[in-house]
Design brief:
- With 459 residues, the protein is of the alpha/beta class.
- It has two domains: 138 residues, Aspartate Aminotransferase, domain 1 (Alpha-Beta Complex), CATH 3.90.1150; 276 residues, 3-Layer(aba) Sandwich (Aspartate Aminotransferase, domain 2).
- The protein is built from 17 helices and 15 strands.
- It has a seven-stranded mixed beta sheet with strand order 4-10-9-8-7-5-6, with helices on both faces. Strands 1-2-3-13 form a four-stranded mixed beta sheet.
- Strand 1 and strand 2 form a beta hairpin.
- Helix 6 crosses helix 13 and helix 16 crosses helix 17.
- The longest helix is centred in the C-terminal third of the chain and has 20 residues.
Length: 459
């Protein structure tokens, strides 16, 4: 334990907690920022410092912090039925109402809902249900998933295998399930010189088709993707991408699993990323903003075709041998229903569109021409700035991430929480943010950016 942290909550943290997505030795030296409370778009640490939460926690607090209606919804449900399960023909009213609501608001072919506790569990469940369905229809060799490099689909063994980020694989012995990773659809980084977005999309669709044919269509179970890639660096797809990818999947009987753990419930200024990009999924995965992360909850929605195959197979076997103790938890589902009420009543999807346009415009106006900024990108209330050592050549810094970490640290000093994904700086504020608050957030970030880059000589 660091001597710099005597007799404090920070010191106790360092003594007892192992932190997610953190350099453990660096954490021993610097300790945590202990967040004590939140209100609206702001959080406060245990020393009274205030921060604009520019990442909505982990891409997830749609209605902001300190929303009393969600606390009251949880309390009411805790008093009435604090827990029950969904095994063996049992159910509860909040789960039934939420399932009905989700079917009503998501793409038309999705007819059944399975609840889990996290996005990682939900993507694990999607994998298992796809395998179960393919076995049920006699396609026993259809086991391989196709995902993208740079994708994030979770952190458990199966969902972590789908994730296309090296740090989530290295020394965890992943991937462990049959998965093939194809090119990340990030035009700025991976398009050929002079290649248009449409041509890049065509090349990626051709790559997908070649991958399917090389493996054998009879072995490929599903293609999984985020409509807009989030935790890998906020990467919107190129023009025409999803239409071309869907066409290939349909041609070879490859199911389409869409991961909207980050995109869902208004983040892009539409109800779902599927709406924004014109995607018709066979399986849809939701989490994070479903409860504004006030409670752990995720949902897997499946088409009627998949449900019928699963239902027949469960009758043949005698059961669907999958489920979680806290799946369809009545308190989590009650909070989700209230959270979705708030999103609807306050017009937060439209707010994400309107204020998101302001965020995207201001980020580009303020930073796009900076010599250390290669690209500003995003849709709605999710965005990123990519830092580069050489703007013309798009050359990355060496080592990657050192400058991003400096910007991340400086942002804390200036009172704004952002996320450094290597040298990509991500923004994803709560859906309640106003244009004035966006300007305040970017003012703080600009000071942090100037502080972290002072003295650097761009190429």
């Amino acid at each position: 334990m660091s001597n710099a942290l005597p007799n404090s909550m920070q010191a106790r943290d360092v003594e007892y907690l192992l932190h997610a997505v953190t350099n453990a030795r660096r954490h021993e030296e610097r300790g945590p920022i202990v967040i004590e409370r939140g209100q609206g778009i702001r959080v406060f640490d245990d020393e009274g410092r205030e921060y604009i939460e520019g990442m909505a926690g982990l891409w997830s607090v749609a209605v902001g912090f300190g929303e009393k209606r969600l606390a009251d919804a949880a309390y009411r449900q805790l008093q009435k039925l604090p827990y029950y399960h969904s095994f063996s023909h049992k159910s509860n009213e909040p789960a039934i109402l939420l399932a009905e609501r989700l079917v009503g608001m998501t793409p038309e072919r999705l007819r059944k809902v399975f609840f889990t506790n996290s996005g990682s569990e939900a993507n694990d469940t999607a994998i298992k249900l796809v395998w179960y369905f393919n076995n049920a229809r006699g396609h026993h060799a259809k086991k391989t998933f196709i995902a993208r490099q740079g994708a994030y689909h979770g952190i458990t063994i199966a969902s972590g295998s789908l994730t296309g980020l090296p740090t989530n694989h290295r020394d965890f012995d992943l991937p462990i399930i049959p998965v093939k990773h194809v090119t990340c659809p990030h035009h700025y980084r991976y398009a050929d010189p002079g290649e248009s977005e449409e041509a890049f999309s065509t090349r990626l669709a051709d790559e997908l088709e070649a991958t399917i044919l090389e493996a054998g269509p009879e072995t490929i179970a599903a293609f999984i993707g985020e409509p807009l890639m989030g935790a890998g660096g906020v990467m919107p797809p190129p023009e025409g991408y999803w239409q071309k990818i869907q066409a290939v999947c349909h041609k070879y009987d490859v199911l389409l699993v869409i991961d909207e753990v980050i995109n869902g419930f208004g983040r892009l200024g539409t109800p779902f990323g599927c709406n924004y990009y014109g995607i018709d999924p066979d399986v849809l995965v939701l989490s994070k903003q479903i409860t504004s992360s006030y409670q752990p909850l995720a949902a897997v929605l499946i088409s009627d075709e998949i449900y019928q195959g699963i239902a027949d197979n469960s009758a043949k076997i005698g059961t669907l041998g999958h489920g979680f103790t806290a799946g369809a938890h009545p308190v989590a589902c009650a909070v989700a229903n209230e959270n979705l009420d708030i999103i609807e009543e306050r017009g937060l999807v439209e707010n994400a569109r309107v204020v998101g346009e302001h965020l995207q415009r201001e980020l580009r106006r303020r930073f796009a021409d900076h010599p250390l900024v290669g690209e500003v990108r995003g849709v709605g209330l999710i965005a990123a700035i990519e830092l580069v050592a050489d703007k013309a050549a798009k050359r990355r810094f060496d080592p990657v991430g050192k400058l991003g970490l400096a910007v991340f640290d400086a942002a804390h000093e200036q009172g704004v929480i952002i996320r450094a994904i290597g040298d990509q700086i991500a923004f994803c504020p709560p859906l309640i943010i106003t244009e004035k608050e966006v300007d305040e957030m970017l003012d703080r970030f600009a000071r942090a950016f100037d502080q972290a880059t002072a003295g650097l000589n761009p190429a």
